[in-house]
Amino acid sequence: MIELRPFDSLGAADHGWLNARHHFSFADYHDPARMHWGRLRVWNDDLIAPQAGFPPHPHRDMEIITYVLEGAITHQDSLGNTGRTEAGDVQVMSAGTGIRHSEYNLEDGPTKLFQIWIIPTRTGEAPSWGARPFPRGERSGRFVTLASGYADDHDALPIRTDARLVAATLKAGDTAEYPVGRDRKAYLVPATGAIRIDDVRVNARDGAAISDLDVIRVTAIEDSEIVMVDAA
Prior knowledge:
single chain, 7-stranded mixed sheet
């Protein structure tokens, strides 16, 4: 089953410095039909103005993944971590027993990013943060795992949950497959371009909630950058 969630149907909030779209219920946007998808709880599509961002605030018991589309985001937290994550790269924060952090766009232009929250399967552990580059060219024509709760995914950022974040870049006409399994759920968003899954067209920044498929076959209608969560 593929449930299309068009960009225009998403929750919206414009705070001036932040223009956000919410794929799932978040903050003042509430939709009982879009509370979560498996363990995936939040997928926010954020546009952050230059020299603006989220001041220090707390989290706990959540895996928070930031996928930067354009610009860069600068992180600082109560553990003493600081880092700047650029377009195409990923950062992961395991909130664990509790952490405070800030996220600012210190660039001269706007920053676009996906922020993704996944409910952990392991709790009671110390918080942590990490980031690493994932060159878009290395995912050309195939899905690459960027963050994972599985020890076998050696090159991925670790998360404490039964899930993966994967991404692919496809040229128009290319097809990529991902074996998901009927017992799992996937949520896919084209960051750019347009794709087709079976007979369903998914445009840039639309969401596709996928279940009861053994293999996801994605064909690019246009040159596309695809981000997906595979979760229990």
